Amino acid sequence: MGMVDRGADIAWLSQYPHEKEILFAPLSGLEVQSSRVDGSVLAREVLEMRLSINLASLTIEQVISKRRKVVQDMCEQLIERRHGQIQKDAPWQALCAATGKSADDVSTYLRALLEPIASHDTDYYNEDAQLGGAINDAVTMAGRVASWPKVLQALTKELNIDLPRLLTASVVKLQPKVANPVAVGAIALLSTHITELGLDNAAIGPTGLTMLATAIHRGAAPLRTLRLAGNVLCGVDKQGTGIYTADGLSKLCDAISSEHCRLETLDMRGNCIFAVGAALLGGALATNRTLTTLDLSDNNLHINGAASIGDALRVNRTLREVDLGENQVQAAGARALSQSLASNHTLRTLKLSRNKLLEAGATSVGELLRSTQSLKHLDLGDNGLGSAGATHLAEALRSNRSLVGLNLCNNHIKEEARLLFAEALKDNESLTELNLKDEGIGAALMAGAAAPTKAATKLLERTKTFKRGAQPGPAA
């Protein structure tokens, strides 16, 4: 055998030391050289063979991944084609001239969009439907990028603004009737001075989020504030219609985790990201070092989602305000959050309204108030805490020295609970705002009063919101 045909001698591993054993590579060939009949009693045919290893042959991995290679090659062709179009097409040249971007910048962005489509496991593409879907997704995504000049021209007409002014604005807010997924990606990548992008209720969906997040990940725009409320970011609306996908959210999490991220405020209210999305987002928040304000209210996070955000808050040191209102967090979620926040010393505002915390949830939050030295504002409105839950919180306020504002409105706290807070405020000097409105009661303590005097008691009966140092007015 020549060197090309030589295998690995594994005789030293064999349990038959008298035999030669050689291991050959997969797809080795056996070629018949000659044959002869051997044996005088029992005739047998002996075939003389030659092993042949064709270095040009595909490996087993290459054979079974042919379909994936088809998708990968097609994506490369789409990128090359788009690169050539940008260099030759007049509208594209005008767009690049207005933004200072090049064909290479756009090609790099398109490659980032197509990479997830072409990087599934080999078995994924062996399903006909998934192979067809990948090809269709790649062609569609490349087509969206190709349409940028046309889409932006239409957008400038709708907004009655010229293209250079649009792409150099520091604040861009698109109304639902003019926003679309393609325009969102183009603006995020091509805008040179944008610091705030408002897309509330623009219905950009998972596709728009993917294009937007990819641009943020590339560090193309100096975005500081991103408003994405009510955009069906994971494909399911509040009525439960649609098919859930975390593809776009996953890309946003990659962007949040990247070194290029400059976001400080992220508003994702009302997007039904569920606990799955919260887990992805929690992983990104654990490494993010720029976000200070996060609104995840009305996202159906439930207990597990709240726990995921809590895990992130154990290690995150930049977030100052988090809104988790209206997420079905319940008592178990409140307990998980309270345990996590015990080791957090940077969060200043936590909003947990409309989460069905009940008395058990108030108990957990009370434990947090006894340990925290950093939390200043807490919203527990409309949680069914009742007088029993309010009792736990009032007791916790006696030892708390950081809380400035506490909202307990709409919690079915009975009349007798009002004096518990007045008593607690004798020991607590930090709380300046206590909201018990819509309960028929209120809480107030005269500035500088050391005990709930008769005047303070009357005040408790008349006012709904207490502000230390301010003259309370009568209840409406």
Automatic annotation (TrEMBL):
InterPro entries: Leu-rich_rpt, LRR-containing, LRR_dom_sf
Superkingdom of this protein's organism: Eukaryota
SMART domains in alphabetical order: LRR_RI (SM00368)
Alphabetical list of SUPFAM superfamilies matching this protein: RNI-like
One Pfam family here: LRR_6
Name the UniProt record assigns to this protein: Uncharacterized protein
Species this chain originates from: Emiliania huxleyi (strain CCMP1516)
